[in-house]
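Write out this protein's structure.
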Amino acid sequence: MCLGIPGKILDAYESQGLRMAKVQFGGIVREACLQYVPEAVAGDYVVVHVGFAISRLDEEEAARTYRLLEEMGQLSELADAQIDDEVRRGNSS
């Protein structure tokens, strides 16, 4: 199942004409496109689905949603992607 995952925008910037961001999901940081939420800025919480921030939400709702997804075991794809990135960079243990 594909779910939108809440994360915190650490940094927003432009890349190749697109608004992009570094978004933190727990201990993992991923890149996401901000084109669908042009009002989002660093410090905001957004729901990210397949690399696109699709909505903003407040910190309390983001934390509650993240906890529920974690309890349901729905964050494994995010962790798997982090492991894949580390293997590609040669940082595997």
